[in-house]
Amino acid sequence: MDGHGEMGLIAENFDPSFVGRMKEDGYESRSGSDNFEGASGDDQDAADDGPSKKKKKKKKYHRHTPYQIQELESFFKECPHPDEKQRNELSRRLGLEGKQIKFWFQNRRTQMKTRLERHENIILRQENEKLRAEHDLLKQAMTSPICNNCGGPAVPGEIPYEQHQLRIENARLKDELSRICALTNKFLGRPLSSSASLIPSQGLNSNLELAVGRNGFGGITLPMGFDFGDGTMLPLMKPMANEMPCDRSAFVDVAMAAMDEFIKMAQLETPLWIKGLDGGIETLNLEEYRRTFSSFTGMKPMGYTTEATRDTGLVFLRSLALVETLMDANRWAEMFPCMISRAATIDVLSSGTGITGDNALHVMDAEFQVLSPLVPARQVRFIRFCKQHSEDVWAVVDVSIDANQDAGNSQMFPNCRRLPSGCVIQDMGNKYSKVTWVEHWESDDSGVHHLLRPLLSSGIGFGANRWVATLQRQCDCLAVLMSPDIPGEDSTGISSAGKKSMLKLAQRMTYNFCAGVCASSVHNWDKLSVSTVGEDVRVMTRKNINDPGEPRGVVLSAATSVWMPITQQRLFDFLRNERTRSQWDILSNGGPMREMVSVAKGPGHGNCVSLLRGSAINSNENNMLILQETWCDASGALVVYAPVDVSSISVVMNGGDSAYVALLPSGFAILPGISPSYHGGESNSNGRLMKPDIDGSISGGCLLTVGFQILVNNVPTAKLTEESVETVNNLISCTIQKIKAALTVS
Fold first, then answer.
1. Which of 169, 358, 697, 705 is deepest in the core (most CB within 10 A)?
2. Which regions of 473-605 does DSSP assign to beta strands (E)?
């Protein structure tokens, strides 16, 4: 995953308070000419009369008007060092003296230099503190070195020679006992559920001591560790601060049972799996599943429905790189930004063996989403177990664990559970891997809007097909990022570094759009209930104070989903076409838009990041461009855009840092078409399902999600008015009506 570093969005060593200080004094800048006008003739006469009159004479202050400051700031962005001719032109246009213009630019440059120095000082201070902490750790380690052979002091002279030899012998016996236990496990044919050290070592963490006699050997105890059925004994990792409260050894039993069931589900064919028409989605035959497997996760809760699908595809990524991505919570969420809004590793029970991390076992939290405000997010706590089955074959399986074991979180994840799900990865050579994906859910869909229930019950919403299609597209994008030259069509000749910066900025834009549509817990959204807004429209608000990637102030988000009786491909082509954009987008000012830059993200149709310019009504809008990302595959389609100013995007196109470009995204998500009147795809029915093609033609239609995020006030403490909510609600309604009218659909 060499390209992963290129995909990161968050700059390191950034102090959020720095932006706050910048914004506090950024638009109140005053030059010497603002505070003190040059001495007039009367002032000079007064100065000649003597020092007594000079003391009585007060300085004359002058504050520029907002219009003058705005014009000066705009000119400063383009030219921080104006020549005499430019200063005279500004003086004439703004009604100021040439000396005032000169002083204002001098002070503005000094102010900018001071800000940069302050920022550099903050970064250097943080680096200094980090180095000091590392120095203290090294100093502490040097004061008490430990022998790697026996675990005692590193210098034998500090303890008696006999005691040192006994410790070495004790360590050797522990290793021998571990090998004996591994052989015992093979003869038993199953892993031991728990073990404990025969001779507890000094300073052993009591949290890791396991019960004696639980392994079926009476009073015989085995060395502490986990066995994964292949003779490999792995020591327990020290738990994190938020460690799991239940018996950690029980997780190993659950992980082994989940892996066994998952491998069989990935390999078995009919009658366990029912293939859709024309090689469509494979759905699980529930009756055959109950006959084949005994449930180790308990009975299905009352009212829960089952979703289970399987899909296979080739991805342009080596198997080991893909395994490393799946076992890293942050990289996993980054790989599937439209499906995972949040992911975190809660505990590392085992980090695995060797550089490959075989038999790694993690406890994770994740929030799964469908790009619609009418589908609640699924929050799950689960075990992720990774195992290498042969030289070129890996398996990564997830299974929910009972979060209710923690009394403080008795209602933590009440609406779903994830049965053995995951992927089998086979390295095919030539940097390709074959991925077989299985998704198996049980969920309470009572909170899902009736318009989206067919999408979930058919297995498309959270199904395997969506994971495979997204993985293929993201791997193609990674290949583009890692290539020395990124393809694209433009007349500006931007560098490869500039194109990569544009892709990273577009990635952050898409991530924030999904978070706004699905009400992700990544942001602190407050849901609003307004009588004039329909139940199928979700309106939320939040305040941005320190995030440099968004405008400072009160942000309002509104989103809804509607059924469109046209194909996914036709709707996608209409929304992404800059020539037809004026038929629905108010930012186009009723005129056509021109595509200035297009950076390809893969071989797919319309899979690119573009920079658009519209027809401007006034001079201010000449400085505004539109950044847009589009893609379309079997999992759906996306058109996300955000206005950006010329100066900011110019820095990005020159390869600069995109983390400080403030934007608020809006756009559309298109989901494969399952008509609201369609009832034949529920997993409980064992019926056949057709695979959604790229044109979304399952039932001659698709689902369109519309989402807007707007800044209603640039003061974070301002109160939200009902007029603002009605404005964004009317914007959504008007946009949907314009799209339907342009496509002549009802």
1. 705
2. 488-490, 526-528, 537-544, 553-564, 594-600
